[in-house]
Amino acid sequence: MFDVNVKILSELKNFITIVSSNRELLGKFCSSDKDFSRSRKLPFDKLAFFIIKLCKKTLSVELERYFEELNNSMPCSVSAFTQQRCKLHFSFFYWWNAVLCRSYYFYSSNQVKRWNEYRLIAADGSNINLINSAALSKHFGGQSNQNSFYTLAKTFYHYDVLNELILVPQIKPYRYGEMQMAYDAIDNIEEDMLMIYDRNFCNYKMVALHLWQEKERKFIIRAKETQRIIRSFIESEKSSAIVYLPPTPSAKEGLKKVGYNINLHTQLKVRLVRVDLEKSTEVLITNLWEEEGHQPEIFKDLYFMRWGVETNISIQKNIMQVESFSGLTVNAVLQDFYATVMIANLHAVLIKDAQTTIDKKQVKAKYPMKVNKNKSFGK
C-alpha cells in the first residue's frame, strides 16, 4: 500500500506540474490569459498548495507559517493572497480530486473493496452555512425566519462507502435542490457502480434515468410508503415482487426536458424488496434481480451501508470544518469546498496503510479498532 500511495502522490504532483508549465492548459483554470505570467511570491503551484492546506486560522498567521515552510522569511500579505486566488478558477481543485480518485482505482485495483463486483456508491446531499456577505447571499441564497436571513449552499456527493472516497462532489445555490443535483450526476455513474439512494430520491424519473443508460446502472432506492403500488406490496406480505411503475405527469414533463418522450404506457420494470425492521417495514426499489443471485435477505445490510455518506458529511463538517471558509467571494467558497473534498480523499487514501497494520494486530481483539480520524487528519 505504501508504494501505491507514492504513485498516487506522484500523479498529483505531475498534474500540478503539467498545468503550471503549460500556458494553454493553465489558461483553462485562470480568469485571463495573463494570470500567473509574472513572478510572484504565490505563483500558481504554491497558491494551490496553500489553499489545500485548508486555512482555518487567521490568514496572516497561516501565510507566515506557510512561507516559513518554504524557507522564505518574507510572506506575502493577506491582500496579495486574496488578489492571487481570484485568478485561480475553483474547477482546478475539482479536477485535481478527479486525478486522485482515478489514480487510486488504477494503482489499487487489487485492493479496491467491492460488494460482489460493484463499487457501492451512496448518494446524498446536505446544507452548509455561509457568511452573510452580499456577494454570497446573492449567489447562493438561503432562508430566513422572523429574526434574520441565513446564507446557505446545497452540497451533493457520490460516496464510495467501502473505499471512503468522495466522487462527483457538487456545491450549488441553496434553492437548486438535491434532486436536480442527483439528476445532474447520473451521467457520471459507471457500469461497475451500485447506487444507493434514500427515499427523497424515489421517483419515476430517477429510476428511468438509471435504466435507460446505454447499459443500465444498478440501483437501490428506499421507497415512499405513500405510493399506492408500495402500499399494495406491503399488504401482500411478499418478500419480493416484480412490478411495473407507471409514469406520473411530472415525470413525463421532466423527462421531456432531457430528451425522452414517453406516454402513460411507458412503464418501468423494477423489483420491490421487503425489509422488516424492529418497529416498521421498509420497501426497496431495485434492478438487482433474484435470478442474478440477489436474494431478499441481503438487502437489509446492503441498504444500511448507505449511512457511510452520512458519516462522511459529518466528518467534513465536524473534523475538516468545511463551513470555515477562508474567503468571502463565491470563487473562494468554491475553492475551499473542492479543496476540502480533495484533502478528505487524500487523507482516506493515506490512512489505509495504517488501518491495514491495525487490522493485522487485532486478530483476537473483542471490538474492531479504527484509525482515529480526528488525530490522523490533524497530523
Describe the structure.
The protein is α+β, with helices and mostly antiparallel strands. It has a domain of 198 residues: Alpha-Beta Complex (Transposase Inhibitor Protein From Tn5, Chain A, domain 1). Helix content is 44%, strand content 17%. It has 16 helices and 9 strands. Strands 1, 2, 3, 4, 5, 6, 7, 8 and 9 form a 9-stranded mixed β-sheet that branches. A hairpin with a 4-residue loop joins strand 3 and strand 4. Helix 1 runs antiparallel to helix 6 and helix 6 packs parallel to helix 14. The longest helix is centred in the C-terminal third of the chain and has 21 residues. The two termini are 19 Å apart. The model has no long low-confidence stretch (mean pLDDT 91).
* Chain oligomer state: single chain
Spell out the helices and strands N to C: HHHHHHEHEEEHEHEHEHEEHHHHH
CATH class of the domain at 114-311: Alpha Beta
Largest sheet: 9 strands, mixed
Alpha-carbon distance between the termini?
A: 19 Å
Give the CATH topology of the domain at 114-311: Transposase Inhibitor Protein From Tn5, Chain A, domain 1
In percent, how much strand structure appears in the residues? 15-25%
CATH superfamily of the domain at 114-311: Transposase Inhibitor Protein From Tn5, Chain A, domain 1
CATH structural architecture of the domain at 114-311: Alpha-Beta Complex
